[in-house]
Receptor-like serine/threonine-protein kinase
Amino acid sequence: MVLRAALPFLLLLWVAFFFSSPMLPLSTADGACARLGQPMQRRGGGSVARDGEGAWRWYLAIWYKKISKTTPVWIANRATPISDPNSSQLTVSEDGNLVLFDQTRSLIWATNITSSINSTVGVILDSGNFVLAPASNTSNFHWQSFDEPTNVWLPGAKLGRNKVTGQTTRFISWQSSVDPSPGYYTLEIDPNGSDQFIHRWNDSAIYWETGRWIGNMFAGVPEMAMYPKEALSYEFTVNEQESYFVYRTNASMVTAMFIMEVSGQVKTVAWIERKKDWVPFLALPKAQCAVYFVCGSFTMCTENAVTFCSCLRGFSKQYNGEWRYGNPSGGCKRNTKLQCGGKSSKKTTADEFYALAVAKLPDKAWGLATVSTDGCKEACLNNCSCTAYSYAGGCSLWYGDLINLVAPADGSVGQSIHIRLAASEFSSSTKTRKATVIGASTAGAILVTLIMIIGILLILRKRNFSEANKVEGSLVVFSYRFLQHVTKNFSERLGKGSFGPVFKGTLPDGTLIAVKKLDGVSQGEKQFRAEVSTIGTIQHVNLIRLLGFCSEKSMKMLVYEFMPNGSLDRYLFGSIPLTLNWKTRYQIALGIAKGLAYLHEKCRSLIIHCDIKPENVLLDADFMPKIADFGLAKLLGRDVSRVLTTMRGTIGYLAPEWISGTAITAKADVFSYGMMLFEIISGNRNADWHRQGGQGAGTFFPVLVAMRLPEGKIQDLLGPKLSADANLEEVERACKVACWCVQDDENTRPTMGEIVQILEGLVDVGFPPVPWYLHVLAQRSNFSTEETSQ
């Protein structure tokens, strides 16, 4: 047998794992040969480290050759490592199979060729596929590693089912970051025959589905439409012999692959040379906490946290080493055993409960509909297996381990579940609290007295402004008289936003503010305060900060931080001599994208702004953008993704779904962002482009961009002053983003989080089609589209 290796990959490597130690290659058997019945000789240096518990674990593996970070893509003996590579043998058996023996001559791993081959050749192809074939015809594979993947799905490998042999290919997670043995999570084609793939836990629970194939993408993965076809292509094939999905990459443009993570997410990663690392640009499912049993028993999963799994109160980690290596599924165990029994005695104390807020109640609850709250609690106490209860109009009980608990997003209220703990878990904390209270009472009394005295002095000193000291949450409740005073009777007008004018003011401490008077607002007092309170809790560098408000009878005003450079439209369309250079424009576009991504993906409530346009983007002293004017915003719970509402926003930035009357999602903001991005690129109103001179004049600018992109004529899209210092790579990136944002089908538009990654250069996208809706806008605006038909 002869083994040959292709350039992108090392051949077969001995790979060592030793707890948290990195993998060590002992040899690169590149060019090594073995005849029938003879072992392959290990070549190269290396050492075997041992500790008190045992030796290294050795594996036969393949990894990339030209990537600096060692990344195994296939492991032969992942479930059965060997302890001594010096006395192990990799050889060819008499029936033509490649076999691996350990030091005791026990079979560790073998290929599964069923027909004898006189002359076998083993080759690692450019794709990373290791194949065994007759020397006379190496394209006739008798065995290939692509049919037995581990946790990596490489380009060109089929993922699906052979209907003739019944063989199904699937890839399986590692047990931990240092243990490649098969874990709990798999990705495979739906065994029920539907044209989709499923994520499964422990060969049982299905926790995510791609959705059916709809011709160009899976219904649940609309991001597929964004991938640049020249860099990444894919197809789904169904015939009488097989059903499979395959994707391919252009190796000259990108090195990418799919990985099933230890934590159950499938991630598409690309090698970014300047970062010297793999960068993920797609995760399925998107929410880490949507993965079944990802944190194990008696844990809480918190989305977007550095450490997303944590033990519940009264529990501590078990199998702590696995947690350290990225696998917390061992969960947590009780610190103190339950007393078990609802009645207390002289020697024992009954178990107790504490309330815990969760995003949703866990599955597998037992219901008791006819009991009260106290009866629900008592029913749980009287059953030794009951670990939690919840009462919301009816009683729900949980027995045994609690799993899949998810924390409410950004501190929202969520639902309440009562966790059972031993009484001692409460008594110790109660004693501590009592001691703290007693120890602090004297000092507290003195402190309160001092605060009262200081407060009285301040009131006497600034009586004119006393009405501005009432605080609601993190917002100041201002009186009308106070705001009238600090704005000099609303004499210095800054501009006009949605629902009213904006005035400049100065607080007593010298802080500049912008006061917006809301004209004709018909909201009730309670609703107005609820919305203001929600927006007031938002803290992001690219969102305007709401300092407070005034609500007196029919008069309602909002008080914001002051932005010295005003709104973006002044610099794009106004007569100000200062022209924004390309670098500033690009950073403004990126900052706006980050602010919208925060509203859509990281707030406790999903917030759709509904009126994204240059007038609603303010610039601070350093031209950092801040999204403002939330007068039309819609607030949705995290379990709600779309809403039916009356049409709102500004003509020219409205998504097609506003016109059609269908339910609105965050993708409506994405469309508006795309239309605004066209204006940031050109420095002109989209609606005014027909009045501008230069090449392409007379064509609706967004249509012109969509047509010029594939031709590579992006420099023609910029004016002479802007093109002189523009980064053409960034210009092309921004143009692609803008065109993808304004696609007719909202499912093909990227999310704002994806847009941030694209603008930062971490992800590339292909050339989008010219949306039909842009042509409609052009015709309605009486623009010529003669170039479109040429």
In short: The chain is about 20% helix and 25% strand. Residues 17-54, 428-467, 469-473, 780-790 have pLDDT under 50 and may be disordered. Residues 570-789 form a domain with the Transferase(Phosphotransferase); domain 1 fold (CATH 1.10.510.10).
